Structure formats: structure tokens, C-alpha cells
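queue> holo job accepted (prephenic acid)
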Amino acid sequence: MPNQYAYLGPAGTFTEAALRELKPEVPVDSTVPCTGVDAVFTAVREGRVDGGVVPLENSVEGGVSATTAELIEGAPVMVTAEVAVPVEFTLFAREGVALADIKSVATHPHALAQCRGWLATNLPDAETFSVSSTAAAAQAVAEPGSPYDAAVSARIGGKRYGLRAVAEGVGDRSDAATRFIHIARPGPPPAPTGADRTSVVAFISDDHPGALIELLNQFAMRGVNLTRLESRPTGDGLGKYCFCIDAEGHVHEARVGEALMGVRRICTDVRFLGSYPRADGDTTLTPLQPPRRTSNADFHEAERWLARVRSGEVT
Ligand SMILES: O=C(O)C(=O)C[C@]1(C(=O)O)C=C[C@@H](O)C=C1
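queue> job finished
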């Protein structure tokens, strides 16, 4: 199915806004709203779409566990792009409903977590309900006989379903942002840009003192900066964790490739999730000059030296 892209729907979610930023050339009728992050992954895995966009982490509430779980388990998919979207929340209700009338509020759990303070102060007696997305909440509120009086959603979400804004800026942090990723079926990663990120999931082989330090050292000793480390249960029993790691750089860079080989050597399993351009595109974070003695040239010179030593050419 060519040129179809799935996203966490319905229309009007922050994820749809992220898809627009990542794929501005894709017409609306080539986008496929899905009810849930798992449905986006399924559409990608089954080849019904070319790619999909899902939320990965929020600057206030942290990781989106449905996305992390899908990245770790099931048929592999690859991250090929990312975007960070500022998230501003609005409280929407049907025409004629005032703040004082609101007794129930629906929204996505991540949105709820980001508006908890505002809701506690301004609607202390309102009951809150979690639904599959902020736009799904707005859609539900707009339905006749809706069980909810109000929805917390993106401005475009509430407007799309004909609701009226009762209060703007109801998030507890005005600078909140969510990082979204574009996923596709496995293939060669996009070419390095000089400001890239590499994501992997590492499964440590045996629990022993310093196991995590050994893992992190693979990156540190090769001058690779980590931007995210999240532990997640493997499901195989209490205390069994794997580690989701985001690192600066691209698998085609020698220092990143060598770090990943080191990780592979000390882990039972490593799932490579992709190397892709960083949303900030800030080449000062991955200096075009990597840290001292970790440039491609440094690694290649060391490889050539080892080859000479092995061939008996002692230098
Ligand atoms: O419900 C939406 O609008 C979404 O796109 C999902 C989501 C999330 O999963 O975190 C995205 C951004 C906001 O942080 C709140 C909800």
C-alpha cells in the first residue's frame, strides 16, 4: 500500500500534528488514524502503511509505555525520524457548558498527568477519565448523550469536533513538549546527517554488580553521549529489566558502531531500533569534530595498526 501513513488518532491529536511536521508532503487522505499506539504498530508490521507516527516521550510525564513496549516486543520495526512538538492543552466543552458545570473530564492519561495541578485547583470535584487520545476525548464530548462534560485536548482537536474552549493553557508546564517517532519496517537506516540519534534496546545477560556500568561504559569510552536511558521490565519476572538507550551519533560512525559491538558482546540480546536525524538538528551536540581520539579516522588508524601487528609487522 504505497504512501499511506498511520498515526494515533482520531484526527486532531498531537500525533497528527507531529505527522504533519514529519511528512508535510503527505495529503490528508493518505493518513490513517488508528485507535491506539498498538494499532499503528500493527498497520506498519502488516504492511498496510509505509510508516506510522507515535508518541515516545514527554518532557513532563516521561516515556509512553505503550510505544516502548511495542518497540521492544513483537516483530522489529525501525525508527527513521523524530520530531519534538510543544504540547499546549485546552479544556473544551459543548456550547453552553461553563466551567462551574463541569463534573467529568476525559483525556489521554499523559495529558491528564500534565494538567493534574490545574484540574485540582480549578475543578477539584470533577471526575477524570482516561481515553485513547486527547482527540478521542474531544470527539466523545461532542457526541449527544456523552458521559463526559469536558475534554482536555489540543486546540485543533477541540475545534475539529465543534467544541468551545472553556479554558486555555491548562497544562501545568507551559514549556511541555512531546517527542514523536516515525516507524517503518526494518531497512537500511537513513544516511548520517552529522546530527543523528541511535536507539537500541539492551538485554543484560546476567545480573552482577556493575552490569549497567559495563553497558554504559561501552558508550562512554568511545566518546558517545547518551540522551536517554529507560529501564523496562522484560516480563520474565520481578527484577528482570532491559534498557532502552538513545545515543548521539549514527551507526555508520566508527565510534557508535564500535560501541554497539561492545554492547552486543556483553548482552544476551540487543535490538537495534535505528539511526535517524535528531529533531533539534543541533550539530553542536554531536560536534562535527567528535571527542578527542574518537573520530572515524582515529578508529580506522587503530584498525590498521592491529592488522599490521597481526601480520607480524611490529611497529
Ligand atoms: O492524545 C494525543 O493527542 C496524543 O497525540 C498522545 C499524547 C501522548 O501520548 O503523550 C501526545 C502528546 C501529549 O503529551 C498527550 C498525549
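queue> Residues 296-310 form the longest helix (15 residues).
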